[in-house]
Design goal:
By secondary structure, the chain is mainly alpha-helical. 52% of the residues lie in helices and 6% in strands. It has 3 domains: 6-84, no CATH class; 102-226, no CATH class; 263-376, no CATH class.
């Protein structure tokens, strides 16, 4: 380094500085730092040259030099313009390389494969009950990391609730009563942190209940502010009540009603499966889940049994959560009686949906058969 120098050419002229001197014995082991000075038209400039093997060691030798210069200038009535300070670091690396996260990719791949394999065991029609489906999707391999878990949820979430693949993972997990993966990961982190705290207060169950309360306070905000899932939010506005008192098992057809994805002409038209979105029974321009279940005049006789549970009036979307989850405010003295009545209302709603869908699907199969026969003529 003794014979080397750095020449800086600028509009102010040419300046030459030499790197700091260091003995041969210390050159390969000890980080070193030195200062020089050069005069420009705008004043004196003091370059600091330092060498070290690591960034921490470099900071360890540069920072004391900067502090010393700042202190000296302050003692002599001068002020250092810190906002004009510039730093250039020269390394042996020729290009920046992104970090290789091999473990993360491996875990993500395993989570997706596990979700696909488990999904094959859960057909929409038939197969295990919803509680067993949720148990299958709670595999540690699937829930190992929050982001791979969200990716796997897009595959496995709809399978748990017998939903169409076009249903968003957020809506499917909501219907299953399963929080998003990142909220679950944060909950586990907080629980683990409190469990290892020697000064913790409360038992393990109390800590878990407290952290689940924090999760259930954050989840509704995310659910309410989501861009999609408008129909599901409309028909089931109270997330907490749904998670705590939802029906044990959702059928394939009830899930279609709660998501709006299924045997509805509006949905089929958006998926290029129907020529238009009009209702085949009353010629309403949009045959949605709301129109079919609540307003189509063709299904009015089937709705009569369910109407008895809402004061003999026509059932509306705002009645669904009370029928499936029970009233929001139930007096303790009447809770058992009201919950039994709610179970009867739930059963009546399920039967109404199944009757409507069985007729719709049969009529669609006949229409498709007639269309194929017309093409063969």
């Amino acid at each position: 380094m003794e014979s080397r120098k750095i020449t800086i050419r600028s509009a102010d002229g040419t300046s030459t500085i030499r790197p700091p001197e260091v003995s041969r014995s210390d050159r390969s082991l000890v980080p070193h730092c030195g200062t020089s000075s050069m005069m420009t038209s705008s004043g004196w400039k003091y370059p600091i040259l330092a060498a070290a093997h690591t960034s921490d060691a470099l900071a360890g030798v540069v920072n004391p030099a900067l502090d010393a210069i700042d202190a000296w200038m302050g003692d002599h009535g001068l002020r250092l313009a810190r906002h004009k300070t510039e730093a250039i670091m020269l390394t042996k690396k020729w290009a920046y390389q992104d970090p290789v996260l091999g473990h993360y990719r491996t875990v993500s791949g395993k989570a997706s494969k596990a979700a696909l394999a488990i999904g094959r065991l859960m057909p929409n029609l038939g197969g295990p009950s919803q509680s067993k489906r949720a148990l299958l999707m709670s595999s540690n391999k699937v829930r190992y990391l929050s982001e791979p878990y969200d990716t796997a949820s897009k595959v496995g979430g709809p399978r748990v609730t017998r939903a169409y693949r076009t249903v968003s993972a957020e809506a499917a997990l909501f219907l299953a009563g399963t929080p998003p993966g990142d909220l679950l990961a944060l909950e586990r982190k907080r629980i683990r942190g409190k469990m290892v705290d020697p000064d913790r207060v409360g038992s393990k169950n109390e800590i878990r209940e407290e952290e689940r309360g924090i999760l259930l306070a954050a989840w509704p905000i995310r659910w309410r502010d989501g861009r999609n899932r408008a129909w599901t939010r409309k028909i089931l506005p109270d997330l907490i009540r749904w998670v705590r008192r939802r029906p044990k098992d959702l059928t394939f057809h009830v899930t279609q009603v709660l998501t709006g994805h299924g045997c509805f002409r509006d949905y089929l038209h958006r998926r290029n499966r129907a020529p238009d979105a009009a209702c085949l029974y009353c010629q309403h321009p949009t045959d949605t889940a709301e129109h079919t279940i609540f307003y189509c005049a063709h299904w009015k006789p089937i709705r009569l049994v369910v109407n008895k549970f809402v004061g003999s009036r026509n059932i509306t979307p705002s009645d669904v959560q009370d029928m499936l989850c029970g009233p929001s405010d139930v007096p303790i003295c009447m809770s058992e009686r009201i919950m039994v009545a709610s179970q009867r209302a739930t059963q009546a709603f399920y039967e109404m949906v199944e009757d409507i869908f069985s007729c719709k699907e049969q009529d669609e199969r006949l229409a498709e058969a007639e269309a194929r026969a017309a093409l063969n003529v």
